[in-house]
């Protein structure tokens, strides 16, 4: 009967246009299957880990049998597996007892606070405002491209690279097809259950934006849960509260929030998996078999989401395996032989996408707050070692994790300094992981907090909680009020995001939406925004090209429009039009908008104060404005250049 329901329920939901209802059913089934823990939040975290890893691996089968990505077969197969596992483990006969203790309620409350900080900026904005928030990270355009293409081909792009050829430049084909795609495939599968997700590219991008926010919330929950696990079962609410508040402040106002703001979903997934792995390597689950399955799932999750973190994951998992003497069990060898090659597939694809100097490439990620990171590292180590902390195997394991990650960061820093004279993009990405590992290890500091009396009444417990809040408040305020690479910028990046000071590029997103609504498939041309200021035009042109399926033709235009690149002349613009393999459609609005110069080597542009926004009239006064240049080119190439006069929203 249960196996029949596993297929009848998805079929009925699909018939009733209620595919979305299958998502909570799948999560609930995975939660019920977790018999290695009794706490509801423990079960939820483990269930999400297993579902994500299973989706990443099932994506290999989907790539050859694309019908598996449709809601009915996807849910039917998933519920069948859950039912069979439940029968094998006795879950169908003996439902687990779920406990909700005061510590779990406290943890849930702090997770809700982190979720609120992440949600408010997105809920408070319109469609263009939401989509524009991660646009300044610029990578979100390519993340959407991969998510959209995986939904079209119904499988991994590294197994269908030729499907990308009509959509990306030839020079980017290998890099895009082999980019880590676990989170993109998961998004594509989830989107199949959401009504209207494939109605048009704008709706699809909106879904992607909400999935990005959801990923951050799950990442925050993973880090807080992991810190609580490191604290141990004996930690009481009054001891945990100050630690969880500090962790929450770092997540909401420190460097981790910039990963959301810049739009890096795969990195968030990798950080979340690494956090849970750190906690379980230190404090394993009660069942060795469940622990092994979960560790394997976490390593797979890291491999398919962010292979840069795979060395740390392998070290953390290997340390636990050595501590448990797993080589003595035949099933551990079988598991490694089966799953290691599957995890290696994503790693090999990522290596194929990387050049010899991959670790030396620059990027647009915010520089990590150096002083705050050093303070966090010191706090984490102190919480692990003082007062005889190393007598605990769990704290020794956590210290090994912190020390191992510090060595990895130091090695990459030394390599980058030796090669280019300074640290660059991927050093900051590794610092993000070091921060997460330290936040997890900070849970050990709970044992150093004042402990409430076992027989304390309600008033005494309330006073203990107030003392905990007061103890954490200096660090919370320090993280909320200041930030930046040297912790001297006010306010922090998280507070800028929360208060709306950091808006991303909502105008660029709205322009891209306007262009896409006018020409959903590009109208047979590459659409170029010359409507407004330089950054706005750059973002709008790239995003519109991705939404319209014209990203293949945007590379030269993105380079020409890039405000910090070589200043373009009318001849440069003319040459790009002449060499374009497709017609060019210029969007115009503000007649004063300009970007061109007379001499690229000696550009005469407005002088700006440091940090000032670029003006709409950014070009040389002696050079044509954007509108004048567009009209000149339309007259010179009457069959190739089209001009559209459009009024952007909110003008």
Automatic annotation (TrEMBL):
Transmembrane among keywords: yes
Keyword tRNA processing in record: no
Transmembrane segments: 23-41, 48-68, 74-94, 106-124, 207-227, 239-261, 292-322, 329-352, 372-390, 397-418, 430-448, 469-487
Keywords: Membrane, Transmembrane, Transmembrane helix
Protein name from the UniProt record: Uncharacterized protein
Organism: Planosporangium flavigriseum
């Amino acid at each position: 009967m249960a196996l029949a329901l596993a297929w009848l329920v998805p079929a009925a939901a699909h018939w009733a246009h209620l595919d979305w209802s299958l998502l909570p059913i799948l999560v609930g089934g995975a939660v019920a299957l977790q018999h290695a823990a009794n706490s509801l939040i423990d079960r939820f975290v483990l269930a999400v880990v297993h579902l994500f890893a299973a989706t990443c691996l099932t994506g290999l089968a989907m790539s050859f049998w694309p019908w598996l990505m449709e809601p009915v077969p996807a849910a039917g197969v998933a519920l069948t597996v859950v039912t069979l596992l439940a029968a094998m483990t006795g879950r169908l006969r003996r439902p687990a007892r779920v406990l909700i203790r005061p510590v779990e309620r406290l943890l849930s409350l702090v997770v809700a606070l982190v979720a609120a900080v992440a949600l408010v900026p997105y809920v408070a904005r319109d469609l263009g405002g939401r989509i524009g928030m991660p646009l300044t990270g610029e990578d979100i355009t390519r993340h959407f491209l991969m998510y959209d293409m995986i939904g079209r081909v119904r499988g991994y792009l590294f197994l269908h690279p030729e499907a990308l050829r009509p959509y990306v430049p030839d020079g980017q084909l290998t890099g895009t097809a082999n980019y880590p795609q676990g989170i993109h495939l998961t998004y594509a599968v989830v989107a199949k259950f959401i009504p209207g997700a494939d109605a048009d590219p704008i709706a699809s991008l909106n879904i992607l934006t909400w999935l990005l926010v959801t990923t951050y919330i799950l990442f925050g929950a993973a880090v807080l849960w992991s810190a609580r696990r490191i604290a141990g079962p004996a930690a009481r609410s009054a001891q945990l509260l100050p630690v969880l508040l500090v962790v929450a402040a770092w997540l909401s106002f420190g460097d981790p929030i910039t990963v959301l703001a810049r739009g890096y979903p795969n990195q968030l997934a990798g950080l979340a998996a690494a956090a849970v792995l750190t906690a379980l390597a230190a404090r394993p689950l009660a069942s060795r078999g469940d622990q092994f399955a979960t560790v394997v799932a976490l390593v797979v999750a890291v491999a398919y989401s962010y292979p840069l973190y795979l060395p740390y994951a392998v070290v953390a998992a290997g340390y636990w395996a050595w501590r448990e003497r797993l080589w003595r069990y035949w099933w551990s060898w079988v598991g490694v032989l089966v799953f290691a090659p599957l995890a290696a597939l994503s790693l090999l694809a990522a290596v194929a996408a990387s050049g010899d100097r991959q670790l030396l490439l620059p990027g647009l990620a915010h520089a990590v707050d150096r002083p705050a990171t050093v303070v966090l590292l010191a706090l984490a180590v102190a919480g692990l070692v003082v007062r005889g902390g190393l007598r605990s195997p769990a704290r020794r394991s956590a210290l090994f994790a912190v020390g191992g990650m510090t060595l990895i960061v130091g090695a990459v820093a030394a390599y980058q300094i030796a090669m280019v004279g300074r640290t660059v993009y991927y050093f900051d990405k590794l610092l993000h992981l070091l921060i997460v590992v330290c936040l997890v290890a900070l849970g050990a500091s709970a044992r150093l907090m004042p402990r409430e009396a076992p027989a304390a009444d309600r008033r005494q417990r309330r006073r203990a909680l107030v003392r905990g809040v007061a103890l954490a408040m200096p660090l919370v305020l320090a993280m909320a009020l200041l930030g930046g690479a040297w912790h001297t910028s006010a306010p922090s990046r998280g507070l800028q995001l929360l208060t709306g000071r950091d808006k991303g590029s909502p105008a660029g997103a709205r322009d891209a939406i306007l262009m896409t609504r006018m020409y959903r498939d590009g109208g047979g041309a590459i659409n170029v925004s010359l409507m407004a200021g330089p950054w706005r035009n750059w973002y709008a042109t790239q995003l519109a090209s991705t939404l319209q399926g014209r990203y293949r033709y945007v590379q030269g235009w993105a380079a020409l429009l890039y405000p910090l690149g070589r200043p373009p002349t009318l001849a440069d613009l003319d040459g790009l039009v002449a060499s374009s393999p497709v017609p060019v459609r210029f969007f115009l609005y503000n007649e004063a908008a300009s970007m061109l110069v007379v001499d690229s080597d000696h550009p005469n542009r407005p002088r700006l104060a440091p940090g000032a926004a670029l003006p709409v009239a950014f070009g040389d006064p002696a050079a044509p404005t954007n509108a004048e240049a567009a009209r000149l080119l339309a007259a010179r190439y009457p069959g190739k250049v089209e001009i559209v006069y459009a009024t952007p929203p909110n003008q």
